[in-house]
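Lab notes, practical 5.
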Amino acid sequence: MLGFLIKKNFFDLWDNLFRIALINLGFIASAAIPALPAFFPGLIYIPALSIAVTAIGILWCCVYLSAAALSVRAISDYGSFGFGDFFRNLKTGLPAGLCMGAAILLLVLMATEIIPFYLGMNSLFGLFLAALIFWTVVIAICSLQFFFAIRARLDTKLVKVFKKCFIIFFDNPGFAVFILLHNAAMLILSALLAFLIPGPAGVLLFIDEALRLRLLKYDWLEANPESEAGEKRSRRRTIPWDALLIEEREKTGSRSLKNFIFPWKY
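Output from the prediction step:
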């Protein structure tokens, strides 16, 4: 399943390079807002204003990513989207973006202020609390990476979206860690390409495609209920991915190097 996921994501990125690059370009411009106080401290010298600019910039970036996630879902579903769709998705994704922005600000506060505070207590109890907060942040990052994809694909009620993020993580911890590490590698690669390709939009596309394929597992489990919990756990470990992905593989197809370089000849 993971091999097919990487293959499909590469094909979809290649077929939509222009759209992905333009979305990333917009995000780079958006990311300049929260970066202003850090790179130009003399421009905003009032501490409260500097914090406000950073917070507002992070919230806007999350709204932008929410719209991007709603847009790239069409690519994941073997379709496409226009830029009129993207601008409409800005309005649709506003509540989810603001909520995710608030969650990110909270996680940043926990990582930069609360953990150092407990470590500064120089006690075993303080170390325990710092470790507890640290693993809470790690689990939240692993879980909330699915937030925009779940909002775009499964549910519009934000409380349920947050809940489903953690359900998917705890039910698929290895899968979630793989997605996180893969996304980190994609962002490192993006740095070499000025974050235009694959960039944040490419990461959102990968997460959406990963979630879309992972949901096939739950469709299969629902269609094949087990009477005993032990048998059900055993069936979870033996999901018939080859059978579940037959239609997906047919839609994705295969390509040679010439197909990628000279697509108009085929």
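Observations recorded by the TA: Residues 47-76 form the longest helix (30 residues). The chain has a mean pLDDT of 89.
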